[in-house]
Amino acid sequence: MIQDLVITLVYIGYAMGMLLTFGAILTWVERKQAALMSDRIGANRAYVRLPFTEVKIVWMGLFHGMADGLKLLLKEDFRPNTFDRFAYNLAVWLAFVPVLLVFAVVPFGGTLDPGQLIPPLAGWFEGRTYSMQIAPIDAGLLVVFAFAGISIIGAMLAGWASDNKFSLLGALRAGSQLLSYEVVLALTVLGLILIYGHVDLRAIVEWQSGTVLGFLPAWGIVVQPFAAILFLTASIAENKRMPFDLPDAESELITGYITEYSAMQQGMFMLGEFIEIAIIGALFTTLFLGGYNLPWLTDAGFLLPGGELIALPHALVVVLQLLTFLAKMALVCSFQILVRWSLPRFRWDQLLRFAWTWLLPLALLNLAVTALAVWAIG
Amino acid sequence: MDKLSFLLAASGVLFTLGLVGVMVRRNALIMLMCMELMLNAVVLSLVAFASHHGAPDGAVLAFLIFVVATAEIAIAIPIVMLLARQRQTLDVQSWDALKG
Amino acid sequence: MSLVDILIGFFTVSAIGGGVVMLLARHPMRVALALIATMLSLAGVYALVGLHAVAVFQVFIYVGAVMVFMVYVIMLLDIGDRRALHRYGRVLWPAIAAGGVLVLVLGHLGWRAGASLPPASAGNEGTFLVQPFSAAFLANWWLAFELASVVLLVAVLGAIAVIQGSRRHDG
Asked: How many angstroms away from the CA of C64 is the closest CA of chain B?
């Protein structure tokens, strides 16, 4: 029992560290990638001066993230004279915590055998193996949607409790947009569940370790390419990023439902948005890009098609799987930043019409075609 | 005291709280929310029985109750909105024309 | 008294506490937040008892759809009139008395019913995983499933009819 607790605590530490680091680094990636795309240099003025010298370390602008964080921590925490202080403070947490909680069911690695990894502790662990998931729930995909629903309430509560007409407008826009795109998200994933036959994220990733037609990896994006595009679109809309960022549109509503929040409370909203970029990357990787799978990599080593096995130590397999997952996640995050800096913003009625008259019928069509294909083939 | 007795007693308490809420509160939306509390109490007792017997029928009924509650809320709230628009208030005691 | 039992007790008490706050709070948004707290605590109870599929659907459907709609409407209908802030109607004390009697009756019945049933059969933890639950659902209850979708369709049509009818009436 206590061994399970220790392993779970290690996983939680890894997840929190990784997600918060991703959230911070993504601010830098956003600035630099935008600069690359528009042929500029980007923000590079923040520096750290080595003490007792005149040497200024710029380090390609990475210190801007630190400067942002310090600024938000040290600013004056101005609060409006709202009549519902409890809802005003609660909304920050309701919008931030579910984003982190979603990662609890995502498998970020294969099977961990602590006895093989740290031989002195093999006796204590008694040969138990653990799958690298914080919570191995067999309704994993449903848990993801459940927690996404809670963050909708956080955003709406934030705008309402701010005692500001602009924030209320932002909250109403956020509520209707998030609810519409969550419906689309759920329908998109149905075709995927039909093919995988599971809602368990671990089983989904293991299904994707085979091959299709003999040479293509059996990733979700190969068996359901249309659903992949729909899922990515709907999840960028769930994240309220460009081109769907009307709830906190800078040129229209100041910052929408975040307007009356200052200092670190605003920082929590923004950090939550950036961490959700990473979470969308993790979910897309798990559902469509094969999770932590490398072609031909099993728990024992590389099993090449000829039948040859290149045995690898367990630690190396674990590290390879972790790095593969992180690399795929980073790829999807970079793609989201690419989309943000390429497309203009939707108008509000265009946004809702896009969800209900375009994405929803397309998701249903995808489901119908998938059902026919599964019935015809399988 | 075993789990089933405790959960059934809790379900009874929650149901009573919801019922008293519907009778006592004046705001129409709060009355709707107390009705949701009553439905949740019923689902709790269904789940308690299902886990006790190990039969999935209770879980299936709970799922169907979720569906019916969603449909009920979807119609009840537009009706409340229309009523509020008529009298410019959410107070249900403003609809007392039939009172003697 | 294992950890699971303590947690079930904690979440049940938290659900009842949320219910009490629902009766006492003044503003509808506070009541909505209390109801969300109650629903989340009940989802915790369902998960601890073993029915985690039902727990996930409780959060997904009840909190993620029904309560979002309710919070949305409370934000829209922010009619700042003074009369709505009077909490209780005319039947306050009779209702409290009746509620007291009812809680005693129901609580006692629930307790006795729980004690009189045969004890729980062990080894049925596998029946509530997602796949056996779905198989049982679609094998025995498929008619109810189809009728539930008809109910939802009727609800959507009814909501549209109510709103359209009011628009035509307004002119």
From this structure: 11
| The one-letter amino acid at A192 | L
Angle at alpha carbon of residue A193, lines to A189 and A196, rounded to 5°? 135
CB A242 within 8 A of CB A338: no
Q: Counting runs of H as helices and runs of E as strands, what totals does chain B give?
A: 3, 0
What digits encode the pLDDT tens for the residues A61-99?
788 888 888 888 888 888 877 667 888 889 999 999 999
pLDDT at A291 over 90: no
Q: What is the ipTM of this complex?
A: 0.93
Cβ atoms of A265 and A299 within 8 Å: the answer is no
Asked if C64 reaches chain B (Cβ–Cβ under 8 Å), the answer is no
Q: What is the pLDDT of residues A247-267, one digit of tens each?
A: 776 556 677 788 888 888 888
B abuts A (3+ Cβ pairs < 8 Å): no
Contact between C71 and A199 using a beta-carbon 8 Å cutoff: no
pTM of the predicted protein model: 0.91
Residue ranges per structural domain of chain A: 78-377
Which phi and psi angles does A60 have, rounded to 5°?
60, 20
Q: Do B40 and C39 touch (CB under 8 A)?
A: yes
CA distance A91 to C64: 15
Task: Report the residue of chain A nearest C34, measured CA to CA.
Answer: A87
Residue C86 DSSP SS3:
coil
